[in-house]
Design goal:
OB fold (Dihydrolipoamide Acetyltransferase, E2P)
């Protein structure tokens, strides 16, 4: 009798942990789509968690009560986004920067984002008119700096 209780308790614990793991993994999935692809999503695909990237349209950022609205652009397509997450937006979130939003598309076409990542597009680009640094020549032997 004592072994049956132990076995039943162990099965309940293992079953609960398995269910929590499955549930957590399925809720954390986010599928990447382009802005142009969003209109073609139907059925279950339209209701799943989605990631979309684009450049923040200059002048579109509005700080409202409980959310921040902005527009991202990608290859001539625009997407209205409302950020409702709890985390503060990154310092690089500003007009013209690149943003990756994660959340759900609403029936009215607006995208409700719970997460926003941003980077300054110009930070990683070369200066116009300056030549690119030459790649190291793989045929020449590597130089040692003498430091260990």
């Amino acid at each position: 009798m004592r072994q049956k209780k132990f076995l039943l308790g162990a099965l309940i614990i293992v079953g609960t942990l398995g269910w929590l793991g499955f549930r957590g993994a399925s809720e954390s999935k986010a599928y990447y789509h382009t802005i142009a692809e969003l209109d073609g999503l139907h059925g279950g695909a339209a209701h799943q968690r989605i990631r979309v990237a684009g450049d923040i349209r200059p002048g579109s950022i509005e700080h409202l009560t409980g959310r921040i609205d902005f527009v991202i652009m990608e290859q001539g397509h625009a997407l209205n986004v409302s950020y409702v997450g709890r985390d503060p937006l990154p310092d690089t979130f500003k007009d013209g920067s690149q943003a990756l939003v994660e959340g759900h598309r609403m029936p009215d076409g607006r995208f409700v984002a719970e997460k926003v990542q941003a980077k300054c597009a110009s930070k990683y680009e070369s200066v116009p008119g300056k030549p690119q640094p030459a790649a190291p020549d793989s045929s020449s032997p590597a130089r040692s700096t003498g430091q260990s």
